[in-house]
Description:
By secondary structure, the chain is α/β, with parallel strands linked by helices. Helices cover 42% and strands 12% of the residues. Strand 6, helix 8 and strand 7 form a beta-alpha-beta unit.
Amino acid sequence: MTQSKIKLVMFDLDGTLVDSIPDLAWSADRTLERLGLPLCGIDKTRDYIGNGLFTLIKRILTQDMHKEPDPELYEKAIPIFWEYYGNNVCQFTTFYDGVVETLKTLKSQGYKVACITNKAEEFTKTLLRHLQIIDIFDQIIGGDTLERKKPDPLPLLHVASIQQVNIDQCLMVGDSRHDIAAAKAAGIRVVGVPYGYNHGEDIALSEPDYIVQSLSELPDLLLSIQ
């Protein structure tokens, strides 16, 4: 079957466009410190992110990927973490190489660009404003914008519908198995990046359609697959 020309490129945020681990880890450790619990540090926090901030809070409290924390402790931790991260969403976060230039290039070439993340919409927009790239995106979807988030395909299908772009004219770019799974479930071609947060797994194991070492490779890749 002939593939259609890509018109809309959807990007994950954390681990794909930005390295936000330092701010998330700092906020996690300040939360644990206030609660009198052992700290996580950057390495553990890196493994715990990817499913939204509410899941991250559960994981830092239990220091486990799957255990449920004490409900009372969890409810106490949520506003504490929200306070720390809300006030420090972009003190240490940085772009990965080639991100800003690539986003600007895609926009200049006429592509629609969206950000689809499991981070809460409030923090997503705050971060993108701080980084001065919020105006690049035609649409921004956070983990709490819709009733379901990645790896469910709903956010991707929603963006394609709102932007009035056919599924076969969309491309998803992400760093984790959740991004790959969401794209495959939506029937959207997907690019994996190997440098982000994927719970220690090689992104190739999720079998994305393409892998790029840097987002600076993306404009040429788009030309090659059209």
